Amino acid sequence: MKILFPLLLLVSLALAGIPKVLASETRVDSTGGLSLVMDDESVAINPYIYSNPAGLGLLPVQNRFDYTEEWLRETAASTNEIIHLYGTYNDVGNSKFYYQGLTVWPTDRWAVQADADLFNNDNGNFTYDLPPLTNDRTREYVRTTYNFGPFVLGASLIPVQLNQTFNSYSTNPSSLFETTSGTGTYNSLTGTGGLLVCFPGDPGPKQSRLELGGTFGSQLGMNQQKNDFGLEYNSVTPINLTDTYLTTTDITWQPQIFYEIPGSFQGALLGQFNRTNVTTQVVSTDTTLIKSTATYNSDNTTYSIGVATFKMTNSLSPSLNFKTGGYFSLESATDDTFKSNGNPSNDGTINTWVGQMGVGVESPGSFTVGLQAQITSANGQSVTNGLSPVNYLSYQFTVGGERWLSQDWAFRMGIVFENDLNTGDQDYATLYYPVGPDQRITATTLTAGVGYQDSHLKTDFMFWTGQPSIYGSPNTDDFATQIGLQLALGIIF
């Protein structure tokens, strides 16, 4: 009953009807996850949203400044351990750059976007052998594009800097080695070029359009991760270790097809292929206890994903539309690890597929209500902690919507139910918490927010709270309490 009441309230408000207005263009996820139902530039299916630098050149010509922020605090009831995350909203859940930072148009065919963001994680969800205590990452982004009419060219540059501190850690109860201190740094520089061929060139706002193209990206120089650890052997002998990881190859290319009938249909067929090679070097101050190793090829990884997605609008009446959308992806990630003598160590492949479907009803500028479902499955062999099986299944349901209260103000809310089941041999990392072996975690999350828009200012604020818990646990304290905030601001000038 606690879940149904706010939903019935939302629907009754929605059906009341108000004059038509425009929707906010910087929406945070106040509805809990209705990306296939809602109409908004931030969840559109176009090259810009899917990280093609050339996609910037196909947006409306308007100078703008956008900023997003997310904050999360998660407290485990049984241990009182606190996880604290904050950073730009685009950054916490994914690595896309869109509607963030400053975008200017020196001419009506040339655009430039510049951004810098921050991500901080204290006691966050990591499944490395040595869990980081804190992560502080800064990242910059520059993108430029030129629209030639029949085709568009774009390029982007992304420098990244990461600083970490590590917990004290013992590999297992019988180990004689204990990490007493640890710090890590990471630096990278990546460049990406994008191309889009448009049919027709320079289409009008109501013309159907087909865009064919893709991206090619590579590291510029060698990305480096360097960790310095202080260890003790048998609680007496101090040892200092320095691990250096160099990414010698990191190449990504993406073929892309986009088709749009303005106001009725958006669809895309996408692919991504990546190859990465990493070398490792270990320097020890006591080689009798821990050997130093010369630089050797330690990891070769390949990754591929195919995506098909669409959103469709069908008119039910002059003021009412029926919304449908779908998404399906199939990905494969292979990791080949090697010993310091060059011999193969482990070879693991994980295959993952994700399916989403959304349906809803909208009265443009008045209300939207919808339902979206998602299922995720991952299977294979992981090399994270030796070679171990991965078998993970998750499903999620979201019910929510928005109601415009006046010409400028909107109210949005949603309820999300999620079930995560892991029957593999190691933790499976989700966005905000790990799912342990032979563990099932269920969570119900409530989201609510308000939005404001006028001709120059668009902003959204959201509050959400959830309680993931271990299903069937005899310990009544096997749950965590989550509280989160999200903010998005857009200034058009």
State the gist of this model.
The chain has helices at residues 4-16, 89-93; strands at residues 64-76, 82-87, 101-104, 110-122, 132-147, 151-166, 169-170, 177-199, 209-219, 223-233, 237-261, 265-284, 293-317, 320-338, 344-363, 367-382, 388-404, 409-422, 428-429, 434-435, 439-453, 457-466, 469-470, 480-492.
How would you portray this structure in words?
The protein is mainly beta. The protein has a single domain, classed as Maltoporin, Chain A, CATH 2.40.170. 4% of the residues lie in helices and 64% in strands. It has 2 helices and 24 strands. The chain has helices at 4-16, 89-93; strands at 64-76, 82-87, 101-104, 110-122, 132-147, 151-166, 169-170, 177-199, 209-219, 223-233, 237-261, 265-284, 293-317, 320-338, 344-363, 367-382, 388-404, 409-422, 428-429, 434-435, 439-453, 457-466, 469-470, 480-492. The strands form 2 sheets. It has a 22-stranded antiparallel sheet that branches. The longest helix is centred in the N-terminal third of the chain and has 13 residues, at 4-16. The radius of gyration is 24 Å and the shape is globular. The two termini are 46 Å apart. The model is unreliable at 1-24 and 125-130 (pLDDT under 50).
